[in-house]
Amino acid sequence: MGKIFDYNNNFFAGISRVSDTIILNFLFVICSIPIVTIGASTTALYSVSMKATRDEDVYAVKEFFKQFKENFKQSTIIWLIFLMVFTFIGIDFYMCSLMANDTISMIFKFIFTIVSIIIGFIFIYAFPLVARFENNIKNTLMNAILMSIKHLPYTLIMLFLTLMPIGGFALFGQYWGQIVFLNTCISFGVVAYINSMFLNKIFNKYIQE
């Protein structure tokens, strides 16, 4: 009976992990509301998630705000770069839809779709790299490109998972209320936690080298 109430057993460890994931998800959503802070929020989310998946003893709230503050400048600059690129691609897609020639329109849409996927690859790695390694912005983005290509199977899985919280609106728009609830409560945290298991496996190879 003693083991049932042992706070170090798997049951209580699982409960603690779920509660931390919910807390991190809520902090991520709240701190991302100004839009410009999404980069810092993402870095903080992945910093705590990667430590959690490495079984490090970490206080979620304290560590989140610590990483948010320490990596704010670099994460924000990287996020603004991504935001400009995504905006540019969005405008390009809109311009394609206005083209009179459907064939040319489809060709350009295909090209911009490939570009979007590549940018998505870089996005997946950029903020976790900021969270795990000390580097300048140029090298961080270059490393993100190289890692995303070298570890393509993991990259595709992580990109799919990352798009799920947003993609849910496109696939299940009639349940937008439930999707908003899940995203606010746990979706982003769960995705970050799963992705962090892959990211730790990838990053450890470079640390050992």
From TrEMBL:
InterPro entries xref list: DUF624
Superkingdom of this protein's organism: Bacteria
Keyword annotations: Membrane, Transmembrane, Transmembrane helix
Membrane spanning stretches: 22-46, 77-100, 106-131, 152-173, 179-199
Pfam families: DUF624
Name of the protein in its database record: YesL family protein
